[in-house]
Design a protein that fits this description.
The protein is mostly helical and 175 residues long. Helix 4 runs parallel beside helix 7, helix 6 crosses helix 8 and helix 7 packs across helix 8. The radius of gyration is 18 Å and the shape is elongated. The chain has one domain.
Length: 175
């Protein structure tokens, strides 16, 4: 049994029953172990929820980093383009959207998880603001947050996201 299997099981339980119905017993049942076996990897449910949060943040940041590496070093808006392209790739991944939805449920019910996502938000703004200014960086962030919300609610599709992101790039590229 690996930590990631328990995190994946927690995501499934949250998606099926909601975060308020999440229990270590349900996670254990999902992976076919006893509840005490979970304590080998996590000290409590809160520890597992934070692991889920960090996993989601890691996947999010990894995708943006992959896109960043693809962009030419002489691109004056390298961070901005990586942010937009990385988010678009993630919005095209229905499984990753489900993971983010589970993580957002944890975020709403957990101040420590909220702090983790706030840190991500500030880091992304800190990278983009020098390239395009704070207001434009906020605009991109809010627009992408709306797309994520729509994707998690099942009312946003990748084709629409791509069109909006292309339009946002046009706006940002205008001086």
């Amino acid at each position: 049994m690996k930590k990631q299997e328990l995190i994946d099981a927690a995501i499934q339980v949250i998606q099926e029953d909601g975060v308020h119905q999440l229990s270590l017993a349900k996670i254990a049942e999902k992976v076919g172990i006893t509840k005490p076996a979970i304590f080998y990897h996590f000290k409590n449910k809160q520890d597992l929820m934070m692991a889920l949060t960090h996993f989601t943040v890691g996947e999010y940041e990894k995708m943006i980093a992959v896109e960043y590496e693809k962009i030419s070093e002489d691109d004056a808006l390298r961070h901005v383009h990586a942010f937009l392209k990385g988010n678009l790739r993630q919005l095209n991944d229905s499984e990753l959207i489900k993971v983010h939805a589970a993580s957002m449920e944890v975020l709403v019910s957990n101040e420590e998880a909220t702090a983790v996502w706030q840190d991500v938000y500030h880091r992304e703004l800190g990278k983009m603001a020098p390239e395009i200014g704070e207001v434009r960086a906020d605009l991109l962030s809010v627009a992408l947050d709306g797309m994520w919300y729509g994707a998690m609610c099942g009312v946003w599709d990748a084709k629409r996201a791509e069109a909006v992101i292309l339009y946002l790039e046009e706006i940002i590229n205008q001086e």
